[in-house]
Design brief:
The complex is a heterotrimer of chains A (277), B (293) and C (320). Chain A is α/β, with parallel strands linked by helices. Helix content of chain A is 35%, strand content 24%. Chain A has a six-stranded mixed beta sheet, with helices on both faces. In chain A, strands 2-1-4-5 form a four-stranded antiparallel beta sheet, with helices on one face. In chain A, helix 3 packs parallel to helix 5 and helix 5 runs parallel beside helix 6. Chain B is built from twelve helices and no strands. Chain B has a single domain, classed as MetI-like (MetI-like fold), CATH 1.10.3720.10. The radius of gyration of chain B is 22 Å and the shape is elongated. Chain B has 293 residues and is mostly helical. In chain C, helix 1 packs antiparallel against helix 12, helix 5 runs antiparallel to helix 6 and helix 5 runs antiparallel to helix 10. The radius of gyration of chain C is 24 Å and the shape is globular. The chains are: A alpha/beta (277), B mainly alpha (293), C mainly alpha (320). Chains in contact: A-B, A-C, B-C. At the B-C interface, helix 5, helix 6, helix 10 and helix 12 of B face helix 1, helix 6, helix 7, helix 10 and helix 11 of C.
């Protein structure tokens, strides 16, 4: 199994706006020296609370945000310094699914146009071929041909996310980043979408970067897991190892409070010592 | 005459066009009335040649300053011209100028605003400074200057009014672009590999049409007022073209014994402006999700 | 806070600079210049004499030379002299400024008093015909242009009461009765637009405030409806009034131009009109600067007033 995506010492700092000239400059270390790799056909889960830097990392990979330093290599090619046309070619191979299903679809575009846009932009099809390919994609994710002319807001969250998945698959990508892809959905719908994603992975040999704050979901989906806290990687390894025998105190606290059914309180006493370490 | 306006946006409701129209009729009766009035004004303007009983330019030395009567419903002016016909054609003049101004200013203002908002940087800064400068000059003074430079004519009037209107469209367009840029679907489009040009055309523009149209409607009344003010000062469409403002200004000297020369154009002007203002208010209320009814 | 004021002043200065350059350059492109306009009245003036006059005024120099001459003059405190009368432009302006400011002030006071009053009444008598009439009146007031209102008033006065305002100006100090006879209609016309807006805003902010908790407290103490309104009238309408004045400012300032000219009042407005008509560049420039400065100063004052009335804005750090 070769590594499809390799991220090396990624750093992203945001300078904070000062309110007056007397305040010292402060920066937010959103992502601080993060490195990982994703192999072909496998899923790497990134788990952490909000503010841990998971989503920022995803955006760094796709170069939707400029990194302060570090490197990203996709199939051996340098992403962060790629030129315009190279980047466009790369974008076909790496896609993303977002947290807000309906928000990620243009409310004024019909579903057919939304799913077909990648095909048109990357010139993979034109004219009538676009429509038939779009129908093919929609059916692949469990939607029907009749949905082509509808608008995004006419669908439920789960259906909208299916459409987003169809769009992501339009260019036959090799890597799909799922950024809290099921967090905004009802639990029952979550299971459907997760299973759809797994099925597609098997069928097309996709690699996933699966980001979520929900431990159960990450455990279910990922082959390997990486735990992030305040912009840094605190633990990484095969999923069963990370979940079964966590070594880092933060991971332990996270799992403990999840077991208690209320993982948000991992911030309390358990972590008092972790912040300094 | 001109005032700044905050446009509130709302995502499209689930219903289609017909349902939206039905909802509008129910909640905004005044808006409906004003649409009817506007339709009437437009009708009059478009079919002016057919509706006017007399040629607005035809002078009739025998019937000077006749008060309203069965023959001349709104009386005649000092050259024997029928006031009613002149008012009808005046509607045409005002509407043509107002539409031309709004459309041109809209296109240019939105284009500049979109580029300014999307590209940012020095261009944005420079454009904002210029827009502020234009807005800090009271409209009349601005119009005075431009119209005085260029001389009275219809195209020049449109030009002057257009300059006055540009900053508003620029500001709203830019604000909308900045807002839409942050929407998830724009992010998604970027991730998909869509280029900036296509993003602007297919993702940004269609989602800002609502506020832009509302702005255009709200400003329309102001444009009519401004054009009448220019005509009043003698800097608008030159005589003998009938225009409401021009009729008002020439009527001043006859105010003591021929008040109809002022009253009728004043009413026509007020009704038209009122209708557009009411429509603009209705539209804005209709599109504002936060309004308490 | 001071940083904010500084930023505003600087951007205001940039504004002013842009406008001045524009006006200066633009006026040069006006067909016909002051000399030819003057010549329309005089006869027997030869071409050489006309050319001499032009030289004297520097009208034949390239535009940028004229501009830099003028800028240099500004630093010396000399903003140019009227081509017509030769008096320093600033002096002419200074004579007229107080008159325009007076009219503006009267109009503003009238607008606030009438607007708040009507708004309060409409809010209190909500749902009755008084409320409806006020709202309709407000929209009408907002729509009808001020000079049209003035004209309609004139028409009514002259045809029904056989009276028209005097055309010879006497200042308020000399003869207050005549002053108001002449300036009354312009003041009312100017005020009406803003009155309508203030009435509307007062009414809606009253209605919002009436249901607030602090109002319940007043009621609980046994206060009647009028007490409730009284308590909130000033505090709540402060901000809306400021907002409105800021929004309407451009229109009101511009209104002085037409109204002063119509009613033969020697203020900055009529000066502007005459200056443009006679191509008297220095005066035009100076008048435009006056309007811009007024506009910028008032907007800054309004922003400061916001911060003063609502301390929350002040401490949060005013940023744009």
């Amino acid at each position: 199994m070769s590594a499809l995506l390799v991220a090396d010492h990624l750093v992203k700092h945001y300078p904070l706006r000062r309110r007056s000239l007397r305040e010292p400059r402060r920066t937010v270390h959103a992502v601080n020296d993060v490195s990982f790799s994703v192999d072909r056909g496998r899923t790497l889960g990134i788990v952490g609370e909000s503010g841990s830097g998971k989503s920022t990392t995803a955006r760094l990979i796709l170069r939707m945000v400029d990194a302060t330093s570090g490197s990203v290599r996709f199939d051996g090619q340098d992403v962060l310094s790629a030129g315009r046309s190279e980047m466009k070619a790369l974008r076909q191979r790496m896609q993303m699914i977002f947290q807000d299903p309906r928000g990620s679809l243009n409310p004024r575009m019909r579903v057919g146009d939304v799913v077909g846009e990648p095909l048109v932009v990357h010139r993979r099809a034109s004219g009538v071929a676009v429509r038939s390919r779009v129908i093919e994609l929609l059916e692949m994710v469990g939607m029907s041909a009749g949905d082509v002319d509808k608008f995004a807001h006419q669908f439920s969250g789960g259906q909208a996310q299916r459409i987003a998945i169809a769009r992501a698959l339009a260019t036959d990508p090799e890597l799909v980043i799922c950024d809290e892809a099921v967090s905004a959905l009802d639990v029952s719908v979550q299971a459907q979408i997760l299973n759809l994603l797994r099925r597609l992975q098997t069928e097309f040999g996709l690699s996933y970067l699966f980001i979520s704050h929900d431990l159960n979901v990450v455990r279910y989906m990922s082959d390997d897991t990486m735990v992030m806290y305040l912009g840094e990687v605190v633990e990484t390894g095969p999923t069963e190892q990370v979940f079964g025998a966590p070594t880092h105190p933060y991971t332990q606290a996270l799992l403990a409070s999840a077991a208690r059914g209320d993982w948000r309180s991992a911030r309390t006493a358990d972590l008092a010592g972790v912040a300094e370490s | 005459m001109t005032s700044t306006v905050t446009i509130v946006t709302t995502p499209p409701r689930g219903d289609g066009r017909m349902a939206s129209i039905r909802r509008f009729v129910k909640t905004e009766p005044i808006g409906v009335v004003s649409i009817v009035v506007i339709a009437f004004v437009v009708f009059v303007a478009v079919f002016a040649p057919l509706l006017a009983p007399y040629d607005p330019l035809a002078q009739n030395r025998a019937d000077i300053l006749v008060p309203p009567s069965a023959q001349y419903w709104m009386g005649t002016d000092w050259l024997g011209r029928d006031v009613l016909s002149r008012i009808i054609f005046g509607a045409q003049t005002s509407l043509v100028i107002a539409v031309a101004t709004t459309v041109i200013a809209g296109v240019i203002g939105v284009t500049v605003g979109v580029i300014s908002g999307y590209a940012g940087g020095f261009f944005d800064l420079a454009v904002q400074r210029i827009a502020d400068a234009i807005e800090s000059v009271p409209p009349i003074v601005l119009l005075l200057l431009i119209a005085a430079i260029m001389g009275p004519s219809i195209p020049n009037t449109v030009f002057a009014l257009m300059i006055m209107l540009l900053p508003s469209f620029n500001r709203v367009a830019r604000g909308e672009v900045l807002r839409i840029k942050r929407e998830p679907f724009v992010e998604a489009a970027v991730a998909t590999g869509v280029g900036p040009a296509r993003i602007v055309v297919r993702h940004v523009l269609p989602n800002m049409m609502g506020p832009i149209l509302t702005l255009a409607t709200l400003r329309f009344a102001g444009v009519i007022i401004a054009e009448s003010a220019l005509s009043f000062l003698g800097l608008g469409p030159p005589p003998p073209t009938p225009s409401w403002g021009g009729m008002l200004s020439s009527g001043v000297q006859y105010i003591d014994f021929a008040p109809w020369l002022i009253v009728f154009p004043a009413i026509a002007l007020s009704v038209a402006v009122l209708a557009f203002n009411l429509l603009g208010d209705s539209l804005r209320d209709f599109l504002d999700p936060k309004l308490v009814r | 806070m001071t940083l904010y004021i500084l930023k505003r002043v600087v951007s205001g200065a940039v504004c002013l600079a842009l406008v001045t350059v524009f006006v200066f350059v633009a006026m040069r492109f006006v067909p016909g210049d002051v000399v030819s306009v003057q010549l329309q009245n005089a006869t027997g003036v030869s071409e050489e004499q006309a050319e001499l006059l032009r030289e004297q005024f520097g009208l034949n120099d390239p535009v940028y030379v004229q501009f830099f001459d003028w800028v240099g003059g500004v630093f010396r405190g000399d903003l140019g002299a009227s081509f017509w009368s030769g008096e320093p432009a600033v002096d002419i302006l200074a004579e007229r400024v107080p008159i325009t400011l007076q009219i503006g002030a009267f109009a503003l006071v009238l607008a606030i008093v009438a607007g708040v009053g009507l708004g309060v009444i409409a809010a209190r008598l909500r749902g009755t015909w008084v409320d409806g009439a006020t709202r309709v009146g407000a929209v009408v007031g907002l729509s009808v242009p001020h000079y049209v209102i003035a004209l309609l008033i004139l028409v009514t006065l002259s045809n029904v009461f056989r009276w028209s305002p005097p055309l010879i100006f006497s200042s308020i100090g000399e003869d207050p009765v005549q002053y108001f006879q002449q300036a009354g209609i312009p003041i009312i016309a100017l005020a009406l637009m803003t009155t309508a807006g203030i009435a509307r805003m007062t009414r809606s902010s009253m209605l919002e405030a009436i249901s607030a908790d602090s109002v319940r407290a007043v009621r609980a103490r046994g206060g009647g409806e009028w007490d409730v309104i009284g308590v909130h009238a000033l505090r709540n309408s402060g901000i809306p009034i400021l907002t409105l004045v800021g929004l309407e400012l451009g229109a009101v300032l511009g209104g002085t131009v037409i109204l002063e000219t119509l009613f033969a009042i020697p203020g900055v407005g009529s000066l502007t009109y005459e200056a443009v008509a006679s191509r008297d560049y220095p005066l035009v420039v100076v008048c435009t600067i006056f309007y811009c400065v007024m506009y910028l100063v008032v907007t800054i004052v309004i922003d400061l007033a916001y911060a003063w009335i609502d301390p929350r804005i002040r401490t949060a750090g005013v940023g744009r």
